[in-house]
Amino acid sequence: MALKLFNTLTRSVQEFVPLDPQKKKVGMYCCGPTVYDFAHIGNWRTFVFADLVRRTLEFSGYDVTHVMNITDVEDKIIKRVREQKTTLREFTGKFEAAFLDDLKALGCREPHVKPRATEHIAEIIALIEKLVARGVAYKAADGSVYFSIEKYRGCGCCYGQLLKLNLDEMRAGERVASDEYEKESVADFALWKARVPDDGDVFWPSPFGEGRPGWHIECSAMSIKALGETFDLHLGGEDLKFPHHEDEIAQSEGATGKPFVKFWLHGAHLLVEGKKMSKSLGNFFTLRDLLAKGFTGREVRYLLLTSHYRETFNFTLDGLHGAKTALARIDECISKLRDMAAGKIEQADDVYLGQFRDSLEDDLNISAVWGKIYEWIRQTNKEMDSVPPVMRSFWAARRLATWDKIDSVLGVGVKAEAEAPAEISALAAARAEAKKAKDFKRADAIRDELKAKGWVIEDTPKGIKLKKI
RNA sequence: GGCGGGAUAGCCAAGUGGUAAGGCACGGCUCUGCAAAAGCUGCAUCGUCGGUUCGAUUCCGACUCUCGCCUCCA
Asked: Is position A191 within any domain?
């Protein structure tokens, strides 16, 4: 079975075929963070989704170039730089670094290219000049340059490819701040924003006068630079369909006259504790908030990967506890396999991987994937004790190789076996003594003490086992 | 108002025109001195009302509830 994905352009699940004539290289662009604050769990759902898409493509044998922009100049950023009396670079650098740390903690593979908007001003200006030359952009009285939807449509181009729009019914929203006024039409959007006093020293010279890029143009400029005028995949959160992605298409196709992107993928949002995230409801979490509660990045990643990317997902702390328990079961099984394999290397089970792949390639049916994995875990546990001794290491190594393949897509890895500190080992030894002396009361007390210190002790046929909670 | 999702067990979440994966929680059992985030195992008729059909949770219609987007937004 070939990889099938839901393409927002066609509103249907389609087989993914790369543009590359060799069918090997794939260009993928994901709208990255605007670095004005720590990213929240909703943002992370989208980035983990992008990582899953990338890993799936790599699992399928494609050579992926993953590009993710860093938006480091934008209204909110400028506002905060001004408020905090800092510099743009210093301010955005801090949140960019935090973002990349979090991305790593969540087990996401680092994008190959991470272009910053402020380092592509020349490309942005060149793109705007092209649009002006083609007659689909104009400079307004306020000094800003806008994209004209009407002129664009006049060229036979389609605005509104990702969703049905009724432009005539659209009115300028009340939430549009004092930002865009001199446009010929409300649907037009800014390509270049003329410098205003509040911008401070955040501005660049350009043929249109001093100013800064509009919101959408950077993605067009940077994706075209990194991946070419037409590329395979572009992803982002569902809220970006309009206006951001629609405007990207207009700018890019308006400038190049070529189709911009073959496949558009959009991830659904999430709710937290059944409600839309908001700081006032107390259900607004950054990854840091969750780590501070004692959860790990892989547990958060696991939970974010339990539901289909096009469905709204309800993220709960209860669910996160469940994720922790569920992962511990996988860890236990893999850890036993490691012991049994004793370093032996074998080939993965292609029959099982085929089933795994079928679910995965079916528009990333991750829930079905987990279903198959837990069935595999149960079967592994069942067979484990009845494998003939001479077959044990082979049997386990084969299973281990299979898991490694699976995990190359899921990226939850296996929890490192924590080495017990001296204090914990001493308690474990004291408990063993007590047990030997049949002082079970004392043994149980020590066990409770260990639990309070975050360690679980298990008596197994092979001796005691200490596990960090 | 326009457009688009969703409604499956206590919670989360797949799926199918022929009597419903998986995870968490819970119960039972096994191992154990007792336990265990050890192992096995049990646990739903799919929002409401009509229709199509031999048969619908799955198709159609209506309704109810719910979520999102309509130029800050993952």
From this structure: yes
Enumerate the nucleotides of strand B whose atoms come under 7 Å of any protein CB: 1-6, 11-15, 21-25, 31-41, 67-74
Protein residue nearest nucleotide B70, by CA to C1': A170
Sign of the CA dihedral running A283, A284, A287, A293: negative
A84 touches strand B (CB under 7 A): no
- Supply A335's token pair: 């850890």
- In this complex, the residue with its CA at the shortest distance from the C1' of nucleotide B25 is A322
Give the separation between CA A253 and CA A229, rounded to whole angstroms.
8
pLDDT of residue A464: 87
Q: Is residue A415 part of a domain?
A: no
> How many domains does one find in chain A?
3
Indicate if CB(A12) is under 7 A from strand B. no
Per-residue pLDDT reduced to its tens digit, A40-59: 999 999 999 999 999 999 99
Element containing residue A90 per DSSP (H, E):
helix A88-105
The answer on A323 and A239 residing in a single domain is no
Q: Give the range with max mean pLDDT: A101-105, A417-421, A454-458.
A: A101-105
Shared-domain flag, residues A247 and A282: no
